[in-house]
Amino acid sequence: MKAAVLHEYDEHLVNDAWLRCEEVEDPRIERPTDVIVRVGGAGVCRTDLHVIEGIWRGKADVALPHILGHENAGWVEATGSAVEHVKVGDPVICHPLVTGGHCLACRRGNDMHAAESRFPGINANGGYAEYMLTGERSLIKLPKSLAPKDVAPYTDAGLTAYHAARKAAHHLLPGQYAVVIGAGGLGHIGIQVLHALCAAEIIVIDRTEQALHLAADCGAQHLVMGDEHVVDRVLELTGGHGAEAVLDFVGEGDSVANGLAMTRNAGFYYVVGYGGRLEVPTIDLITSEKTIVGNLVGTYPELMELMALADSGRVRLATREYSLADANLALKDLHHGRVVGRAVLLP
C-alpha cells in the first residue's frame, strides 16, 4: 500500500520535507478482534508536528520508520475471527485508542487511561496510508449523513474539544461566561459544543480575523483579538471578574498566563493545547480557589455523542482536503497557519 512515512525527526521543523510517500507492507490481522480499515480520511493534527519534532519520544514508544495519522475514518476492509458488530464495507470512524477492554479503566469507559493500549499514529502505524490496523472495540458505525473524509478529524480534534467543553458545560449556567482561547482546528469545534450544550455567553480569542469570523459562524457572542490588551478586554466583558470557565486550546506562549488571569475566582481553567509551562504560586491557588483541569482525548461514549451532534447538524467541521501525496504540504500549511479548521488527507 501507499503511505506517507516519517524516517527521521526534525527538532526545529526546518527540513524541506518530513515524510516520504512510498510503498510499504499492508497491515495484517493479528488478533481475533483486529479490523483493517480502508482509510477514507486522515486528519492532520499539530500533534503530528510534535511527533516529527521528537517531542513524543519521551511519552510514547515511537519507532522509526513510522506512519503518522491518529484521526481516522473509512470503511471496514477485513476483520478478525471474533469481530461481530461491524462487517466488510461498513463506514466507520475510529476512536484513536485501541484497547483490550478488560482493565478497570476500560470497564469504566476511561479508554485513554487503559492499562494496555495501542495508539495508531502515535505508538503504532496510523492512517497516513491506504489501510490501517485497529480494533473492533474502537469503531463506531457512521450514519448515512456522514462521510469518512468529512468526520475523520472528530476522532482527536473534535473528541478532545468535546471532552473539555462537555466538562465545562456541566457547570456553566445562563448569565455566566466561557472563554475559548484559539478558534482553530480544535477551538472551532469546542465553540459549537459549548453552544449546543450550555447557555453561557461565549467569548473567543484569536490572533487572526479569519479565525474570529469562523468563531462567529460557530456561535460565539463576543470576539476578541489576541493582542497585548486581551486580558483587559475579557475582564471588561465579564464585569471585571473574569469567566467561570476558560478553555485554552493553545497552551503555549502567553496563553497560559492570560488564561489563568481571565479565570474568575472559583472558576475553571481547562488546559487543552500544550507546549508551554504552567507556573502558579500555591498561595494564588489557595486564595483564588481556581481549578486547573488537564484534558486528553475523550472516551468512546463521548465520540458517539459527538457523532450524534454532527449527524443532527449541530456541530460541523471546517476542513481543507489534500491528497496523501501532498502530506508534506498539508503539514507545512498547518505549521505556518494557513489552514482554517482542519486539514484532511485523502489516500
TrEMBL record:
Q: Does the keyword Transmembrane helix apply?
A: no
Spell out the molecular function terms from Gene Ontology.
alcohol dehydrogenase (NAD+) activity; zinc ion binding
SMART domains for the chain: PKS_ER
Q: Which UniProt keywords apply?
A: Metal-binding, Oxidoreductase, Zinc
Q: Which CDD domains match?
A: arabinose_DH_like
Instruction: State if Metal-binding is listed as a keyword.
Output: yes
Give the cofactors, semicolon-separated.
Zn(2+)
Coiled-coil annotation reads none
By its UniProt entry, which Pfam families does this protein fall under?
A: ADH_N, ADH_zinc_N
PROSITE patterns linked to this entry: ADH_ZINC
Q: Which family does it belong to?
A: Belongs to the zinc-containing alcohol dehydrogenase family.
Q: What name appears for this protein in its UniProt entry?
A: alcohol dehydrogenase
